[in-house]
Design brief:
Layout (H helix, E strand, L loop, with lengths): L14 H18 L11 H8 L3 H13 L2 H19 L2 E2 H6 L5 H21 L9 E3 L7 E7 L9 E3 L3 E3 L2 E3 L2 H13 L3 E7 L12 E2 L7 H16 L6 H22 L6 H29 L5 H22 L9 H4 L6 H6 L7 H10 L4 H13 L2 H11 L22
Parallel strand pairs: 2-8
Antiparallel strand pairs: 1-2, 3-6, 3-7, 4-5
C-alpha cells in the first residue's frame, strides 16, 4: 500500500469535510433500517432477524442482489452491518453517568454534551429528538472511511455508482481494511487515491444518533460546533441542495458554539477555536485555488507525454504557492501534508465548495438582530423560494468572492504569484 492510500490520521482539519461527505449513503441505509431503531439495544440482533421477514426488506435485498455483482452486494452488506452494530452497541448516557466505574474524563465530556444539547434546544431552538442521548465506544479512530479517486490528469472525483443512490464522488466503509482493499483496486486501475477518516455522521433523524468515541473527546468549541451542526441537519434539510445545507449548518454550528462558550465560561478558548477555523478556511481556499489552476493546466493538452511534464510543473507551482502564502496567510501547519504523496489529485478533488454561502447566512443572522427565531424564520422564507430565486438571494447576501470568513468578520482573498 502506497503512502497516498493510507488514511490521514493526523490532519484534524479534514474532519468537517469528511463528516459532510458521509451523509448520503448513510441516509440510504437508514431508510431501510428505520424499524431497527424501535428495538432496545439488547434485542437489536433479534430485531434485525425479524426484519428479514418484512416484505419491504426482502424486496430491498432482492433488488440489490439483482442490480450488481459480488462487490455491490458486499458493499451494501458492510454498510448495513456497520449501521446495525452502532445501534446495537448504544449505551444510554443516563446509565453511564450513574455508573461510578466510568472514566472521569468521559463522564465530564458526556455531561458537557448534555449541556450543549440543552443550550441548542433552549437557546437556538433546535429539536434533538433523542439524538446524543446514547454513547458508543467504537474501539477505533473513525466510524467510517471515505475513499476518493481521481484520474492522473484530472482534479474531478471519479464517481462511484450504486443502485438506488446513483453516483457519488466517494465510497464509504465502516471497515478500514475494506476501504484499503477498495483503494487498492482503484489504484491498480491507474487512479490516484485519497482515504479520509470520518469521525461522525448524521442519519438526518432516521435514527437517534449516538455520541461516538471518535469525537467525544474533542475540544469544547469543536464539540459544540459538531453537535449543533448535526442537530441543524435533523431540523432543516433541503433535498438536493448540498451547498445550502452545509453552509447553513456550518454557520449555525460555529456561531452557536461561540455563543455557548461565552455563556458557560469557555470564552477564553474562543480565540484559539477561531484561529483554527480561520487556518482551515484559508487552507481550503488555497486548495480550491490550486484546483482551478490544475484544471486549466490539464485541459491545455491531450498528449500524454506533454501532460506528464505539465503535471510535474503544475504541482511544483502549487507547492510554490503554498510556500508563498505560508509566512503571512497560512501558518505552515499543513506543510508536511502538502509536500507529501497524499496531497494528490484525489485529495484536491475531494475538497468541494459546500460552505460557499456561509457569509450569506452570517449577514442574514445580523439582519435578524442576532435572534435565532427571526433568523430561522428567514431561512424558511429562503427554502420556500424556487432554486434560482434562492440562489440569487443568497448571492446578494454574500460578497461573491473567494474569501475566508472563519471568524465571521475576517475577510481575505487568496492570490498566488506562482500561478
Amino acid at each position: 500500500m502506497t503512502q497516498n492510500q493510507s488514511t490521514d490520521q493526523t490532519m484534524a482539519v479534514f474532519k468537517v469535510m469528511n463528516v459532510n461527505a458521509a451523509r448520503p449513503l448513510i441516509v440510504l441505509i437508514s431508510y431501510f433500517y428505520k424499524q431497527v431503531d424501535s428495538g432496545v439495544n439488547g434485542l437489536i440482533g433479534l430485531v434485525f432477524r425479524q426484519l428479514m421477514c418484512r416484505w419491504r426488506f426482502v424486496v430491498f435485498l432482492f433488488f440489490i442482489f439483482n442490480m450488481g455483482g459480488c462487490e455491490t452486494i458486499s458493499f451494501y452488506r458492510q454498510l448495513a452491518v456497520g449501521q446495525v452494530e452502532i445501534l446495537r452497541d448504544r449505551q444510554p448516557v443516563e446509565e453511564l453517568l450513574r455508573d461510578s466505574s466510568i472514566d472521569n474524563g468521559l463522564r465530564e465530556q458526556l455531561q458537557k454534551i448534555a449541556g450543549i444539547l440543552s443550550y441548542a434546544e433552549s437557546r437556538v431552538g433546535l429539536v434533538s429528538g433523542g439524538s446524543y442521548s446514547t454513547y458508543v465506544d467504537l474501539k477505533r479512530d473513525y466510524v467510517l472511511w471515505n475513499v476518493y479517486a481521481a484520474k492522473t490528469y484530472s482534479v474531478e472525483s471519479v464517481d462511484q455508482c450504486y443502485p438506488l443512490v446513483g453516483c457519488l464522488p466517494y465510497r464509504g466503509y465502516f471497515s478500514h481494511q475494506k476501504a484499503l482493499d477498495h483503494a487498492s483496486g482503484l489504484s491498480a486501475d491507474g487512479l490516484e487515491i485519497y482515504i479520509g477518516g470520518v469521525p461522525a455522521y448524521s442519519t438526518l433523524g432516521w435514527f437517534k444518533d449516538p455520541i461516538l468515541s471518535s469525537f467525544v473527546n474533542w475540544g469544547d468549541q469543536e464539540l459544540a460546533s459538531l453537535i449543533i451542526h448535526e442537530l441543524l441537519h435533523q431540523n432543516i434539510w433541503l433535498k438536493g441542495e448540498g451547498q445550502f445545507n452545509e453552509s447553513l449548518a456550518t454557520f449555525v454550528g460555529n456561531q452557536a458554539s461561540l455563543d455557548w462558550a461565552q455563556e458557560y465560561g469557555e470564552e477564553k478558548k474562543n480565540g484559539q477555536f477561531i484561529e483554527r477555523r480561520k487556518q482551515w478556511q484559508l487552507f481550503r481556499e488555497f486548495v480550491v485555488l490550486a484546483k482551478g489552476y490544475l484544471r486549466a493546466q490539464f485541459s491545455s493538452s491531450q498528449d500524454s507525454h506533454e501532460l506528464k511534464l505539465i503535471k510535474l510543473n503544475a504541482m511544483r507551482k502549487v507547492r510554490d504557492c503554498y510556500v508563498e502564502l505560508s509566512p503571512e496567510v497560512l501558518d505552515g501547519r499543513y506543510e508536511d501534508f502538502v509536500f507529501g504523496e497524499r496531497f494528490n489529485n484525489a485529495f484536491i478533488a475531494s475538497v468541494g465548495v459546500y460552505e460557499g454561502y456561509r457569509s450569506a447566512f452570517k449577514k442574514l443572522f445580523v439582519l435578524s438582530d442576532n435572534d435565532w427565531a427571526i433568523f430561522f424564520g428567514r431561512v424558511q422564507e429562503l427554502i420556500a423560494l424556487d432554486r434560482k430565486s434562492r440562489q440569487i438571494k443568497l448571492e446578494s447576501l454574500s460578497d461573491n468572492k473567494v474569501t475566508s470568513h472563519a471568524d465571521y468578520d475576517y475577510t481575505r482573498q487568496i492570490h498566488c504569484e506562482a500561478f
